[in-house]
Amino acid sequence: MRTLVVIGGGPRAAGLLERIAAQSPSLPLTVHVVDPYPPGAGRVWRHAQSPLLRMNSMAEDVTVFTDASFDGAGPVRPGPSLAEWGDVDPTSFPSRQVQSTYLAWFFDHVRKSLPPNISVTVHRATALKVVGNWVWLDSGESLKGDVLVLALGHLDAEPEPEHRKLAEHAAEHGLVYVPPLYSADADLSEVTGDVVLRGFGLAFIDLMVLLTEGRGGRYVGSGDQLRYIPSGAEPTLHVGSRRGVPYHSKTGYRLQGTRPALPHFFAADALRGRDLDFRDDVWPLMAKEIAWGHYHELFTGHPGLVRMSFVEFATAFSALSWYSDEMRELELLAVPDPADRIDFERLDRPLTGLTFASAEEFQAYLRTYVEEDVARRSDPRYSADLGAFLALLSVYGQMAQVMPHDGWWHGYFSYLASGPPPDRLEELLALSRAGVVRFVGADMWVEAVDGAFVAGSPTTPDVVRANGLIEARLPTHTLSRTADPVLQSLRAIGDVSEDDAGLVRVSAEGRLINERGEEDPVRFAVGPCTTGKAFAAFARPNTNAPAFRQNDVLARAILKTLGD
User: Where residue 252 falls among pLDDT bands split at 50, 70, 90?
Assistant: First the structure.
């Protein structure tokens, strides 16, 4: 009897188990899954969180099953998407509790589909350390595996020095400070009065929901007539960030033209193994790929908005580098409306060069900005944005094969492609009109002075004085600052190493790479803390999702190591 120990029982562990089952291994195998949270869902997607929190993906865009697009070595084993399984509106954004139930069902489905020679035991415990092939749990148990897999999911990190100082200031002056956390884990019970939120992405949206509707407020009306009725228990939320604007709304339409074959220009195989600079060597190719998706949809879906045939445009586009005067001339000639051209720099920093005489002026401006974003992302006339989104996905999934994780690119991808549902931004507008949310501006600064938290921005001359500060973002995890006890134990003896971005180094098969550069013969790791990270979101149907291909490679490597 051979033994496999998987530390972490969330979606990635369930997907790995499914790929092991798909190979129909013949060896007798015992699998131990270790996680204090429910199997399948894990910590992030556990059912025990606010029912107000929702996914930022449509139900039709979420699946845990391979389909005909899958090109891995293992067999395709199809199954229902979230929309099909839950019989919900395909274009709705379900609650995280619904997704949790789907993931729990999937784990149970996989478990029941295993051949009789494979058994699975779930340990609702925390793994404390790994030495050799032994895993020690906080339940007092110890497990020995012939193969170990770390499927740890999203992890906490030790506080950065700045966060320690801010927490000390809060404790000294009776203030509230919430460090980077997963929103569902944050203790918000003491958050009252004027509070600064540093970050304007998805973590902010979650916190906004929990601190308003979660405090008993409610919405009436709809669209631009949506109004927020406060309960009186809400704090006033002063929000800002580097960009000073929220993530872009999710699109609410489908492609109007033909679906492009992606990727078209950006090929990881052609770049792999070279000494690359992200800005000089990689980003121009990525930008051209994303622009290709944008213009492919514009020309094939909206021929009345352009001045030449798609064949003529595509021929010229293909021959030019993205950052060239000739490319700008082609765009000007072919696309008359500036709103239909893609401008990556303007998208990245929409408030650059803008200042306002007062905070009130800025509130009105940013509300108009958000209203226009929601309208654009809801209007099929701008479906070129969806073409760009699909191209974004195609390049994001290849980045792990090309070079270490780039922080700017990941943030830019999330800002453009991983924003909230449009109705969340409509709620943000209602909260702004009600005075519950106040916009601070771009390049927001925060200081801990005079017994308070003080914040401001070059966007306006106004300064906010608050009794609370919330870091509205997830913790930045690196191996050197990991709070995970298993990774700490492996790092202490040099059995794990990190790349320049702090990610756990793994081989193409997923084997751990130690500090001497050697591949571990029996220990593997997969997921967002590793250099093999794929998408930060769930797999979309019919996209040959990178996570499925990774799981397939890993499953085959595990079975080969076990001797099957």
Answer: confident
Compute, in degrees rounded to 10, the torsion defined by CA atoms 425, 426, 427, 428: 50
Are residues 27 and 134 part of one domain?
yes
Q: What pLDDT does residue 319 have?
A: 97
Q: Pick from 76, 77, 107, 73: which is nearest to 553 by CA?
A: 73
- 257 falls in which pLDDT band (50, 70, 90)? very high
Strand ranges across the sheet with 519-525? 118-123, 29-34, 2-7, 147-150, 519-525, 511-513
What is d(CA 14, CA 548) in angstroms, rounded to the nearest whole number?
11
Cα–Cα distance, 354 to 518 (Å, whole number): 52
CATH classification of the domain holding 241: 3.50.50.60
Could you tell me which residues come within 8 angstroms of residue 78 by beta carbon, excluding any fewer than 6 positions away? 65, 66, 67, 68
- Answer whether residue 252 is part of any domain: no
CA–CA distance, 365 with 372 (Å, rounded to integer)? 11
> For residue 396, what pLDDT is reported?
85
Phi, psi of 523, rounded to the nearest 5 degrees: -120, 130
Give the Cα separation of 316 and 262 in Å (integer).
19
pTM for the predicted model, two decimal places: 0.94
Nearest Cα neighbor of 201 from 2, 386, 32, 428 is 428
What's the rounded mean pLDDT across residues 108-120?
Answer: 95
Which residues are 29's β-sheet partners?
A: 2, 118
Same domain, 27 and 63: yes
CA distance 551 to 13: 9
The whole domain housing 103 covers 2-157+477-562
Do both 399 and 441 map to the same domain? no
Phi, psi angle pair for 386, to nearest 5°: -70, -35
Mean pLDDT computed over every residue of the chain: 95
Residue 408 burial (10 A CB sphere; 0-12, 13-18, 19+): exposed
pLDDT score of 534: 66
CB 503 within 8 A of CB 29: no
320 and 198 in a common domain: no
